[in-house]
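Hi again,

Forgot to attach this to my earlier email, sorry! This is the prediction with FE(4)-NI(1)-S(5) CLUSTER with Oxygen bound. I've pasted everything inline since the attachment limit keeps bouncing my files.
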Amino acid sequence: MSFESKSQDPASQEMLQLAADKGMETIWDRYEAMQPQCGFGSTGLCCTNCLQGPCRIDPFGEGPSEGICGVRDYSVVARNLVRTIVGGTASHSDHARHVAELLREVAAGHIEGYEVKDEEKLMKVANKLGLETEGKDVNELTKEVAEEAVGNFIGYHGEEMSFLKPMVPEIRYELFKECDIIATGINDVINQAIHRTAMGMDADPVNLIFGGLKAALADFVGCTIGTDLSDIFFGTPQVVESEANLGVLDENAVNLVVHGHEPVLSEKVIETARALEDEAKEAGAENGINVVGICCTGNELLMRQGAPLVANYASQELAIMTGAADAMVVDIQCIMPSLKNVTDCFHTELITTMPHVKIPGARHIQFSDTTADQDAEEIVRTAIDAYGRRNPDTVNIPDHKSKLMAGFSVEALMDAFSKINEEEPISVITDAIAAGDIRGIAVFAGCNNVKTPQDRNHVEVAKELAKNDVLCVATGCVANAFGKNGLLLPEAVEKYAGEGLKKFFSEAADALGMELPLILHMGSCVDNSRAVELGTAIANYLGVDIGDLPLVASAPEAMHEKAVSIGSWAVSLGLPTHVGVDVPITGSSLVTEVGTKIAKDVLDGYFIIEKDPKVAAEKLIAEIDERNWLLEM
Ligand code: BF8
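Structure tokens for the complex follow:
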């Protein structure tokens, strides 16, 4: 059987054959069983916001044109869109708030076991926020930064969120003000957005969309706090080498898979795993403990610890089907409840850790900030125990993995480029843009989506852009896909880059004494904030707005609500933003026109919804060329 229509990844294809042979169900089987999917839901025309519903509005004008309360198609679609954005904002921000509160408690001396690893980043963030740093010790300053971050949630200053302004050029910030899309606090806007989309509330689609953008910018602040504070805690990523794909599982080691998003848990797990290596060896695992990651927890640990990536979103079940995963420990987000069905067929321990993320039947080891070391020990020992129950006859690790380079924080990039231009390292990029060697920059974000073959759109859009001299940076599951496909390696430059991009990379390699990969892995999804930091640095250096730059975004396989939030703030920042799957807004021509056309007039950014990866790349390149032309004028 061929599985190319399901996944482009040969390791996934191999495991899908095994799943079919053994009668094990995967995400792809459930997707097939779900067909046909509801046309009303797919187009955003189903309203369940009150108990009189669900109301479904007929897009063809043959059925009801209004809901029971009289709500029209455009209001239903816009309200649903806003609620989707808010889902993303709540997700990123809850993650960020945990890190912020932990940082505050650690600085206050209430929690032990964590420390500030990156004082330089602490100073950088304090300066960015305009805090007085003179004469303050690390604890004092940490406390102030953490309190400022927490203040961005609850808006107790009654002011605009302080983490937003320094992240964008002044002119863009003024535009946000004009559009009235700056919230006083992340929680404030979530509260307001859920309220304004409730029954009997905002019915004006344009007003609703601006409310959605306000929530999206709050999401951006949540992402920024998540990145900045995690760097302060665990260190700002520097260039690392590692590997990706199911082949990183080690038959002769305890394989401990970390999955989810928060580095607060996974950093403790990897630290503890290193300390308990001998216990694993005593248990018979000659290679000790192999900590590997899925989704953005994987990206966080890769960036700072060099831990290999075992799977991106769509193949999380397949990692267990190898029979070699001794424990899968999960924290928050993108965790399929179906993992329990799969672990039931193997010795694998599925461990949930967060009070608000439990899965029926899974072992729950509560991970508390105050007992993090003991909790991590219990998790690692559970994995070692499970290793003893592993059945060697059921182990099938696909022989597919690729080497990769990651760790490209803005700091790491600027450190490297300062060897070329010590005063203005950013000019290494702007000069290459001016010379035409770099035609533009594309930020890749997002997931896998079972509606399109796993990783195929990611890889095809990226190859097409690289061939046309577009410098690509990536986060999240798309970065993982690039890793699996060898695109995070210098060797990929020769294979896939256009002549201009090749020249840029070769000159950089000569000057740096180090080869850079074709695509720069910038981290997890919250680390899209790093890409914005880079874009803003370029814009400020050139004295233009970020929306003037030949800078585009692409989410070829977007799936999660978080991807919709990120896409919406990317548009607000002025980036033409490609989405490679259908978005449930097509039920309203008005909302679709606003998102895909009119947004450009107001914000410079807009959505390009395009399923064909080649056509998508063409549209992005056309936009890059238009911007280059305008910049030269
Ligand atoms: O935050 S890319 S599937 S893992 S949502 Fe989830 Fe999407 Fe993966 Fe990370 Ni982002």
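The chain is about 50% helix and 10% strand. The mean pLDDT is 97.

That should be everything now.

G.
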